[in-house]
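Task: complex structure prediction.
Instruction: return structure tokens for all chains below.
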Amino acid sequence: MQLFIGGAYAGKRTAVRERFDSPFWCSAYDGKGLDEWRSAIGTEHCLVLEGWEEWLKTELASEPDDDRVRERMRGELESIRAQEDVHGLQVVLIMLEMGRGIVPLDVGDRRLRDLAGWLAQDAATHCEHVWYVWNGLARPLV
Amino acid sequence: METTNMIAFVSGGARSGKSARAEALARRWHQARGGERYYLATARPTDGEMVGRIARHREARGPGWTTLEEPVDLVAALDRVAPGSTLLLDCLTLWASQVLYASDLDERQALTMLDTMLSWARARNIALVVVSNDLNEEVPPRDAEVKRYVAFLQRAHRRVVHEAELAIQVVAGLPMYWKGNEWTGKAQ
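Output:
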């Protein structure tokens, strides 16, 4: 599993496209739910999961407890990682860095920002390679 | 040090030390190359605080700079720079906001202007250091206009970085080299 993380419009998608040949995209921006990654199992060689902040928003809307949201996402990451091994699937996660501004006034934004940070940390522990994308360039952190 | 025709991009957060880093780089390039040394200010003195801020920057730079002030038209500004000189552009963030909110240019025209400035700088042997701010690593703005601004600024950043031999992210006054190395001037 690999993680590409960076700010908005930093060039994350391009960085992924440059490194992976015709992957299957499961994107929240296309209205896909997180659980739809399962449809790629057994049929695709490379799966890209993007739009995690949108999936987090969905979780946060129905679960008031942040720890539970984190646990649920952690569980999902573990399932993805396990399937990757079993099916020889290459999984690429694209996540948005959003922790570097001022503390948001809106409680929903604060929760989202916290969960996004924790999710990125949890994801990184499962990844062999982590890339930080900045202004169209990518550098390996791990 | 290889200093011919180089373009550098220097960015970072507020008060990260990016201007000082960019100025030092421009000074070194100027010393090695000769010619004139120019400072292109995109800031427009709109209020008292801005006037003070511009004065502080000017004082910190010290003497030896020819200051050009041009909020939008980068190509016109470049036309005032003698070939073989060194030019420090500070900063792209303000340029981007003036393009979107105080000019008749659309985004495509503005990016073409930016491309033209980069290629003319090369053609005229002008070493160029471009300063900007990283504004895209916070919770995505809800406001559509702010979103458009961040997206436009990022497009501008990616173009400059793509062209540049040297791309530096400044954190706590220290450089992180994304492209090249300012001491050798060599691409990594």
